[in-house]
Amino acid sequence: MDFEERYRIIQSRDLRFDGQFITAVRSTGIYCRPSCPARTPKASNVTFYETSAAAHEAGYRACKRCLPEAVPGTPAWNLRDDLAGRAMRLIADGVVEREGVQGLASRLGYSSRHLTRVLGEELGAGPLALARAHRAQTARTLLTSTELPIGDIAFAAGFASIRQFNDTIGEVFRLTPSEMRARQSGHPATTPGSIELALPYREPFDAAGVFAWLAARAVPGVESAGPAHFARTVRLPGGSGCFVVRHRAGRLLLEAHLAALADLPVLVARIRRLFDLDADPIAVDGALAGAGGGVLARRVEAVPGIRLPGAIDPHEMLVRAIVGQQISVPSARTLLHRLAVAAGTPFGRSAVDGAGGEGSDRRGAAEVAGAPADPGDDDPVGQLTLLFPTAAQIAEQAGAVLTGPRARIRTVVSVAEALASGELELGTGDDAAEQHARLVALPGIGDWTAGYLAMRILGRPDVLLTGDVALRSGARMLGLPDSPRELAARAADFAPWRSYLSLHLWRTAAEAPRARTTPRAAAARRSKETS
Predict the structure, then answer these.
(1) Alpha-carbon gap, residue 496 to 280, rounded angstroms
(2) Which regions are flagged for Low complexity bias (predicted)?
(3) Cis peptide leading into 443, omega within 30 of 0?
(4) How many distinct helices (H) and strands (E) make up the chain?
(5) SS3 (DSSP) at 274
(6) Beta bridge mates, 48
């Protein structure tokens, strides 16, 4: 977008662009989100920035009226596969706090000097400033939406000291932490030992679709899911923990139980990727509905705001994708549960400080909030008993636990050994082409698995797995070609959103009535799926 386009957006106060760029006003010294309700400043006084960090570096402070930090993130970091986009995904995951700028640069394959120069040119701020802005955003959220002590918030947001925390909040918001908290009228009641936050997103949001996707693949003990909730155990840099995400009365609410408060920003970033919360659904839906002669228009109208589920742990996602090759989702879930029971680490209620207990009846809370109760949401944390096994644990146990084709089991074991030794690495900061080449070079991994992992780990929005039988079945039902070559040619009109097209095709196939299948037809279908 050029200056004129962005200026028209702030004149119209279009909510869709919140989080996609920053408006800084020289006459006031503040920066705002595009939809700020204040009077539109003169064009001559306006400077647009890609990030709030760039505005900080230029000497602007955050608007106290529109709260530009309290918005979804930009969808560009998934669309962009350049150095800046990859760096932003890793910065959100807390790499700078854990490994420093040198560690971030090493992960990306560049020198720290080159990385700082590129980010400065592309985004207006270097990695330290971008990480600092991310910490300030987390701190603001905790100050205004929780009852955590201010000292705890400083470390939960990733600051190294209370002084650094106070200085940053003062510089960015022109308020002390206590003043910022005082501006909030009250905080919702929370479960003892938990941190509860609202996760912003852009409307429309197909929450039911995301929860259904996650529920169908939930590994018992590791995960618990229902029509409006998803819970799971996690390994984070500071230790193990668990979380529950609920959708109530139009809000997405996170309840986190952590061994280390400093893991909160990392967890939030990963959950945002899991639920694809930074997507621009209006742009996606508009493009899908209008492409291909409008063949998907009715489908998009029926399911607006479809999201691309991400992954909490890239290594885990790789194992799950291999186990799920050429078998049904329920069969893969059974095998993964067997593997988790045999190789996973026990996770008990004692590992979660204050989980559950008196007054934790979530069904009643949902009814009070005006949202229908989720039958499985009485105590999802109590259903979490396992941590998904590490790569080393999988390498040791998978050969004896998994069933099915020997070649697939060998692939699981060899990949787990490579992950455990560090020979193979996989992460959200990978270059998409390099990740694909690295994966397909491994025995037992082909284009389908590599493409699926690009969707789930990197959030790539333009992947179409034409070799997938269920996807082609959905295409046929919607009037699209079902042969791989013809489907690929027809789907070119849907770029750069073919991952979201894939989701519509998969969902169409899953929702279709299942006809009774004869043994001969079933054998023929299995042969087709294996080919």
Answers:
(1) 13
(2) 512-524
(3) no
(4) 25, 11
(5) helix
(6) 23
Could you give the angle at which helices 207-217 and 329-343 cross, rounded to 10 degrees?
Answer: 60
Cα four-point dihedral sign 423, 429, 434, 436: positive
HSE-CB of 224 using CA atoms within 13 angstroms: 21
Yes or no: domain 195-275+310-356+368-440 corresponds to CATH 3.80.10.10: no
Distance CA 256, CA 241 (A): 8
| Cα-based distances in Å from 296 to 287, 289, 457, 475, 477 | 10, 5, 26, 10, 11
Q: Do domains 3-62 and 76-145+148-182 have the same CATH topology?
A: no
| Side chain identity at residue 282, one-letter code | I
Kindly tell me if the per-residue pLDDT of 90 is higher than 60: yes
* Superfamily name with CATH number, domain 3-62: DNA Methylphosphotriester Repair Domain (3.40.10.10)
| Tens of pLDDT, residues 39-61 | 999 999 999 999 999 999 999 99
CATH number for the domain formed by residue range(s) 76-145+148-182:
1.10.10.60
How distant, in Å, are the alpha carbons of 81, 399, 426, 466, 508 from that of 263? 26, 33, 20, 38, 38
Phi/psi of residue 449, nearest 5 degrees: -65, -45
Which residues carry out catalysis?
Answer: 32, 468
- Domain positions in the chain are 3-62, 76-145+148-182, 195-275+310-356+368-440
Residue 304 clears pLDDT 50, i.e. is over it:
yes
Do the bridges between strand 61-62 and strand 22-25 make them parallel or antiparallel, or are there none, so unpaired? Answer: unpaired
